[in-house]
Specification:
Layout lengths: L1 H39 L4 H8 L5 H16 L5 H13 L6 H12 L6 H48 L1
Helix pairs in contact: 1-2, 1-6, 2-3, 3-4, 4-5, 5-6
């Protein structure tokens, strides 16, 4: 039982390493959807939020719909502020670091451009920053995952030997 517990702990650490990469992929996917709506749909960012909300997970669907609804109400708040508030609620449950969250929300700060090409460029820059982080983590992840499981198994064997 000790060995199984230690091995399970190693496998849990392996899952934690992979979970951040999966979360980064989903953020990049959302930014790609936003960029696609701006590029091909010629929509404003609040309209884009309403359009892409359907295919997302429940937390992000709620957040994107809330952004669209709040911008339609036009309470005098900028898109960037509304987007940041609603997305921070959805991002708090993901295994991300603060830099990842900031890179995702980065484009929302600079949404005052009336030119759709500038908005598109900002969205693509945010996505590229997240992709760079994702690639770096993927290179490191294989080694860390093997090490976590290996150390869990070896630690379990050591404990079994010590208690025997």
């Amino acid at each position: 039982m000790i060995f199984a517990g230690c091995l399970g702990l190693g496998m849990w650490y392996r899952y934690q390493f992979s979970a951040r990469i999966k979360a980064l992929r989903s953020l990049v996917h959302m930014l790609e959807l936003l960029a696609s709506e701006v590029r091909y749909g010629k929509s404003t960012l609040p309209e884009c939020c309403n359009h892409i909300a359907e295919g997302l997970s429940a937390d992000f669907e709620t957040a994107f719909l809330a952004v669209g609804r709040r911008m339609e109400e036009n309470m005098g708040t900028s898109f960037g502020e509304v987007f940041r508030e609603e997305m921070e609620k959805a991002l708090k449950n993901l295994p991300l670091q603060q830099d990842d969250r900031e890179n995702f929300l980065r484009f929302a700060v600079r949404t005052g451009y009336s030119d759709s090409q500038m908005q598109l460029r900002e969205i693509e820059q945010s996505a590229e920053l997240l992709r760079t982080t994702e690639k770096k983590l993927e290179r490191e992840n294989a080694e860390k995952c093997r090490m976590a499981v290996g150390l869990g198994a070896m630690g379990g064997l050591l404990l079994v030997l010590v208690f025997w």
